[in-house]
């Protein structure tokens, strides 16, 4: 075993179980290990590297800003935050943005906004606000967020959890209708459930949820941290159904593959419930992040990354569907967010991910049974084709 792996295992908390490879360099859709071996990155850090590794425009924005000013806190104005937020607000057609760093923080921000809006605008009685989430969701790892998780391992040992969260099955509009009460302030949903195993809801689900929320004066919060910014073939996954959520949560790809940057977008009617001191983050919206976030958004548009994801996603899906093997139960997804569901009785997800690694492809299983194939959106057709060949090869050896 690499001595680097041994040292990380010794000194790092064991909250992950990484594949046995030490990566030292990345460029576009490729990464290299400590021995100079090349891999196709079919994970893109769960969409954080949608732009590819070290995209030149993003590296340039980072370096230019770094040579001027990096962090001053929101106690002062900087000459870059307005540029970033004006661009984001105009692109997505919302009045305001609230910048944070990680996805979990932005989700917490959206939940806090929804609760405060519930008390101040909807006039829900004090401490009675209810938020509805979906079973098998993934929205992050804070105590409040794992409190609304249905995954035993994410919750075990971390209680007690905040009250006021109710669960409904994903994809079930009727269940949502039944769960809404006069005290419901928000419904939070992923347009496609990523961590649950690339689960797509029935067609029309988001649209029906949006109508239901509107009818009951309930805010629709779309967690687009993984699905947003082109990943599924549209700028936002909600665009597939023409749905405009009340709050949009962005993260991952917003950092352009170089920084953690997240953002909540909403109109004044919601955002105006916050006053100075109500909520914040030392790093949220720092100058370096603002410059990188702006470059990340501009690059998605300039390089038509959503269109790329749509076209290349179809190519990848077609290639994968041509592979037939008893271990493959289902292949599903949208754009460049694709999952192969396998039969764990034939091969375990972790073993399959190791096999892919040995054949030069980085991927990872979720819930032992779904392999993710979600490369950077800048990946070439040639590398997509090569990845399909490798997948075919790997299954032929099982
Ligand atoms: C990754 C993810 C999060 C959490 O983001 P972090 O940056 O890891 O805190 C939340 N929601 C969804 C849908 C995600 O994929």
Helices and strands in order, then pairings?
Layout: H1 3-11, E1 23-27, E2 30-33, E3 38-41, H2 44-47, H3 56-66, H4 81-92, E4 96-100, H5 103-120, E5 130-134, H6 143-147, H7 152-155, E6 165-168, H8 173-179, E7 184-189, H9 205-215, E8 219-223, E9 247-250, E10 262-266, H10 268-271, H11 287-302, H12 305-321, E11 328-334, E12 337-342, H13 349-358, E13 361-362, E14 365-366, E15 370-373, H14 381-396
Parallel strand pairs: 3-13, 5-6, 5-7, 7-8, 8-9
Antiparallel strand pairs: 1-2, 2-3, 4-10, 9-10, 11-12, 12-15, 14-15
Helix pairs in contact: 3-11, 4-11, 12-14
The chain binds pyridoxal-5'-phosphate.
Description:
By secondary structure, this protein is α/β, with parallel strands linked by helices. The protein has a domain at 98-282: 3-Layer(aba) Sandwich (Aspartate Aminotransferase, domain 2), CATH 3.40.640. The chain contains 14 helices and 15 strands. Strands 4-10-9-8-7-5-6 form a 7-stranded mixed beta sheet, sandwiched between helices. It has a 4-stranded mixed beta sheet with strand order 1-2-3-13. Helix 12 (305-321) packs parallel to helix 14 (381-396). The longest helix has 18 residues, at 103-120. The radius of gyration is 21 Å and the shape is globular. The model has no long low-confidence stretch (mean pLDDT 97). The structure holds pyridoxal-5'-phosphate. Pyridoxal-5'-phosphate is lined by residues 46, 102-104, 107, 138-140, 190, 194, 223, 225-226, 251-252.
